[in-house]
Specification:
By secondary structure, the chain is mostly helical. The chain has one domain. About 85% of the residues lie in helices and about 0% in strands. It has 9 helices and no strands. It has helices at about 5-25, 25-45, 50-75, 80, 85-90, 95-125, 135-155, 165-190, 195-225. Helix 2 packs parallel to helix 6 and helix 3 packs parallel to helix 7. It starts with 5 loop residues before the first helix and ends with a helix.
């Protein structure tokens, strides 16, 4: 890649964010630890009935992953706004939407990917049948980047406001309802032996739309937030 080109700038920004996240790798473990603790509480609260746990396993895993991702979303742009890096990104000759997309990708790799890795363990603990776990992982691979993209737009909209974490949760959770419904529906259909491709296809369509529109909306929201 030619130095100064758009691909080189995107790769450099992605490498920078991943390096910074690795230096604070203790923060990466916090959402995973949170997800494990929350999922562990359900057998204690509902009892050890395997049939009941198996029936709710998909929904529990998806809601737990959603809440764990929500914990880390508030910090997506905060450090860059506070140290002036965001102004430098806006002044760069490269499209801001592409640079923002790299930051969202870095967030997904550091916050959501570890949760996807640990999700089969949580599902097994909740007695989800082993043959359904690949469907669960496929749904998570589509649902989690969609959640990160939607959350990034809302983070940009609330940038610079006080108590943005609570405001972010109030705005994001209703938007996540269709994602959780389709993802949990795919797992439930696989458990019943029914076709589960349709919910996965809807998640894929939503992700494709978000990949195009979310970085553009996020860049526009950041410009508005930084101008005020």
């Amino acid at each position: 890649m030619r130095p100064g080109s758009t691909p080189a700038a995107c790769a450099a920004l992605l490498r920078r964010d991943l390096t910074l996240a690795w230096r604070r790798r203790g923060d990466i473990a916090l959402p995973v630890l949170y997800a494990v603790i929350v999922a562990t509480l359900f057998p204690f609260a509902l009892g050890p009935d395997p049939a009941l746990l198996s029936r709710i396993a998909g929904g529990v895993v998806f809601v737990t992953v959603l809440l764990a991702i929500l914990l880390s979303l508030d910090q997506l742009f905060r450090a860059d706004i506070e140290d002036g890096s965001m102004e430098q990104l806006m002044l760069a000759p490269q499209p801001l939407a592409l640079l923002v997309a790299m930051k969202i990708l870095a967030h997904w790799v550091t916050a959501a990917l570890p949760l996807i890795v640990v999700a089969p363990l949580l599902a097994g603990m909740l007695k989800l049948p082993p043959e359904v776990i690949p469907v669960l992982v496929a749904a998570l691979l589509l649902a989690t980047p969609l959640l990160s993209l939607m959350g990034a737009v809302l983070v940009a909209l609330t940038a610079g406001t006080r108590r943005s974490g609570m405001l972010l949760a109030l705005m994001l959770l209703p938007l996540c309802v269709p994602v959780v419904i389709f993802a949990a529906g795919a797992v439930a259909a696989a458990q019943e032996g029914l076709p589960w491709i349709a919910p996965i296809a809807w998640l894929g369509a939503g992700l494709a739309l978000a990949l195009v529109l979310a970085p553009l909306a996020c860049a526009a929201a950041l410009r508005i937030a930084m101008d005020t």
